[in-house]
Automatic annotation (TrEMBL):
The lineage of its organism: Bacteria, Bacillati, Actinomycetota, Actinomycetes, Mycobacteriales. Na(+) binds at G94, S97. It comes from Corynebacterium meitnerae. It is a multi-pass membrane protein. InterPro entries: FluC. This is Fluoride-specific ion channel FluC.
Length: 147
């Protein structure tokens, strides 16, 4: 895997790391505005996908699938240039994955004292999520030419 560098470097680092400085210029303000638009649109599409997935897969399997999809998309987005990580990773991947539902399901397992299913669900979700993110990054690095 080839290491990549951010496209938008300023004198003090990546654009956005110094919000006040970025907003003081027209280009910086536009970049910040577009960042919010891309994240919002990605979150809208991710929310629709999560809803559709919840109609097909009910309960724990749906939550597990949503979290794996979110992890893979987040890994894939890390290989993309410019605003794509904001759109795909933070927006879409963040909206399709669901830590709150997973926490609710784990809490229900604790209430019912289902310790082994709880341990299995938590471990498999975490390990599979890391593998999915790694695989998504790998695919992204192979498909997206270096920017």
């Amino acid at each position: 895997m080839t290491p990549r560098t951010p496209q938008f470097l300023g004198p003090d680092g990546v654009v956005g790391s110094h919000l006040r400085e970025a907003l003081s210029t027209g280009d910086g303000a536009l970049t910040i505005f577009l960042l919010f638009v891309f994240v919002g649109f990605g979150a809208f599409l991710g929310g629709l996908t999560r809803w559709a997935l919840s109609m097909v897969l009910k309960g724990t399997p749906g939550t597990w699938a949503a979290n794996l999809i979110g992890s893979a998309v987040l890994g894939f987005s890390a290989a993309m240039p410019a605003m794509w990580p904001a759109f795909l990773g933070a927006g879409f991947g963040g909206a399709v994955s669901t830590l709150s539902t997973m926490a609710k399901e784990m809490g229900q397992m604790v209430e019912r004292k289902e310790w082994w299913p709880l341990l299995r669900y938590t471990t498999v979700t975490c390990v599979a999520g890391i593998i999915a993110a790694w695989y998504g990054l790998r695919v992204g690095l192979q498909l997206i030419p270096a920017f």
